[in-house]
Amino acid sequence: MHLIRNLFCAMGSVLIASLLLTVPVTARAQDEPAPGWRVAWDFLVENVCIDANNQPLPGVSPLDEPAACPSQRKLAIGERLPYHKRDWAMIAERDMRPNGYQQSDSFPVRTIYGPAVVQTYDFGDTPRAFGRFDDGDGGQIAFFTAQSASFGITEDGGAGLQLFLGPACKPVDSWIVVDSSFAARPAGQTLARLTRLAWLCWLRLDDAFTRWHVQPVSYRDRVHGRLGRVVLSTLVSEHFGGRDVEAADHLERMYFTRELGYTRWERWQNLSRHDRPSDRQGAAMLAAQDRCEPGLGAPAAGAVWVMTDCREWTQMVPPADPAGDSPGFWLDKLRDNAATKATFLP
Predict the structure, then answer these.
(1) Using CA atoms, how far apart are residues 38 and 31, in angstroms rounded to an integer?
(2) Per-residue exposure over 94-133, b if at least 16 CB sit within 10 Å of its own CB, e if not
(3) What's the predicted TM-score (pTM) here?
(4) CA angle, corner 216, sides to 38 and 229, nearest 5?
(5) Run of H or E residues at 138
(6) pLDDT of 10 higher than 60
(7) Residue 167 preceded by cis peptide, ω within 30
(8) Closest C-alpha to 326, from 152, 63, 62, 118
């Protein structure tokens, strides 16, 4: 049995590599998504403030006052990052870590599948440091096809580097954010089918009910040290761990805004399916820490859902380099990795 499994693993790896390498490279000329994806692109890529010459203003974010940020546009491929978003430390550590634990950016990149969006996770809690790749760092990459916008490459401190494969056994149309219907209407749902196991791709895919909508969401923010609040139009995408809401034992909810790109993330557990003491303890600890505000609340009535983890990247900080920081964090690592390097174009 182990021999058969290993054979399938090897075959899957070879197959994925060959599929990646045989995709036409006409995507090199594309720096923006197809017209049908411009609305989704607007939510996934962060804005930059610009001067009269259309150049990004370092140290200024879209949450600055209009006098400091007179005009905005999407961050372009290859541009340096003029600001960063960071999360909120727990109450007990807020004086020690006023700028939070994790930094995140949402920027575009060229790939063999066309323009994609990189969203990073960069921890800066000692001994880790912002701006370099440390243990537990990573991110996710959203690819666009005719069918969907979905995350196909992810990395985090839990499972490490992963490829989420869709029905074509490629890292597309897998962890769906929205499908193509989003261009015509702001709310919808679909049943995503995906796997992280290349050797199972042609045999079995897991089900993940996915739904999305757009609504105003109120966020707390910190800009140049000043605490405040801001209401932003938000694309909320919910990825359930099951075929439907009732069958799912967990949920990941993602918030995307036109100004900041990826803005908030939540993990929920369905205690009606599996009532684990560790989930109840995690939810109680999270509520006491005040790292995130309540957000939109439970995803469904008639079941006991608890939020066990979250990140809210709404603290704006300037770049380390006065001219703007390179977006190479994590991306340079992927360009050198045998499993992912063929995906990216110059």
Answers:
(1) 12
(2) eeebebbbbbbbbbbbbbbbbbbbbbbbbbbbeebebbeb
(3) 0.91
(4) 115
(5) strand 138-144
(6) no
(7) no
(8) 118
Which uninterrupted H or E stretch holds 7? helix 2-21
Tens of pLDDT along 295-340?
Answer: 999 999 889 999 999 999 999 999 999 999 999 999 999 999 999 9
CB 122 within 8 A of CB 137: yes
Output Rg (C-alpha) for the chain, integer angstroms: 20
Q: Which of 187, 179, 239 is nearest to 213 (CA)?
A: 187
Quick one: which of 296, 301, 208, 196 has its CA closest to 247? Answer: 208
The tens digit of pLDDT for each residue in 99-112 reads: 999 999 999 999 99
Torsions phi, psi for 218 (to 5 deg): -90, 130
Q: Of 319, 256, 232, which is closest to residue 57 (Cα–Cα)? A: 319
Closest CA to 234 of 221, 217, 219, 251: 217
- What one-letter code names the amino acid at 270? N
Residue of 3, 7, 9 whose CA lies nearest to 199:
9
Q: Are 178 and 157 in contact (CB under 8 A)?
A: no
